[in-house]
Amino acid sequence: MNFSSDNAYGVWPEMLAALERAASGPAPSYGADALTARVEAEFGRVFARPVKAFPVISGTAANALSIATLCPSHGAVFCHAEAHIAVDECGAPEFFTHGAKLVGVEGEHGMLVPAELEAALSHFQKGFVHHAQPAVLSLTQSTELGTIYTPAEVAALATVAHAHGMKVHMDGARFGNALASLGVSAAAATWAAGVDVLSFGATKNGAMGAEAVIFFHAADVRDFEYRRKKAGHLVSKMRFVSAQLEAYLEEDRWLARAAHANRLAQRLADGLSGIDGVELAHPVDANAVFPWLPDALVKRLREGGAEFYDWGPPAGGRTLVRLVTSFATPEADVDAFVALAKG
Questions:
Q1: What is the pTM for the complete model shown?
Q2: Which pLDDT belongs to residue 180?
């Protein structure tokens, strides 16, 4: 019963087969191969417009490099206070921007709202040499607390950002889970709502190690390719990253696998609801569940073999925990967890 992370599970068999095919014979290096070109064209199909797509092998690289391309060293990046770029990337965005300021903005259930963003921006005077200059708004989709922005909510935030001359970045480490839940097109969830650059994640949904930075406007690419090289993410045998992405996008498998994870998260939430002392802290929109559990129940679940993370210190005899389902989580594990919780 492993609910520690969607990173805990393995790799799709279709990807392993794609990697084996890519290993047959020589191919140009550093992304000049035909497979990488096909992947960029496939991203164009998925997003219903021509895009510039650059494979990398980690979400931190995708976020930090795309933000650094959009933000000068004297700039400011606005994000939720609990965003991955603010909490879990060891200062990578600041490092790759050569010192840009990350501004964490509070928001309920891990989400930003226009009024709070406007309030935060009011502290940064445009053209005032003593203030970092607002340059990027970064949204996480789905959020660190498992919630999802609707296209209308993204558009409202993007409108604020663009009015201040900022670019909009989306951290889509779990973009597949968000899109499977929303039931809208990839275009509607991104560029049509005002997103300029997307960190497109595949690793958490079954890749061995494959992400992509997707620019929806060619002018925004700027010096990204040089930054990618300098950071060590211009992979010499790029076709093996691209092979994963091609298998990921084929036949919309990524959405079907993400939908499986989402469905099991909802099954888990439904099963826990009603148990004495259990309370869900956040809506379950994607593949993460955040319940408050009595400490005695936490102990019993772990003794019974369940794996999950505490999401803060115990408080009043309860602990907030995070339960994450994946593309390969067995339904039987969800049922066993719920049965153990019910005692």
A1: 0.96
A2: 98
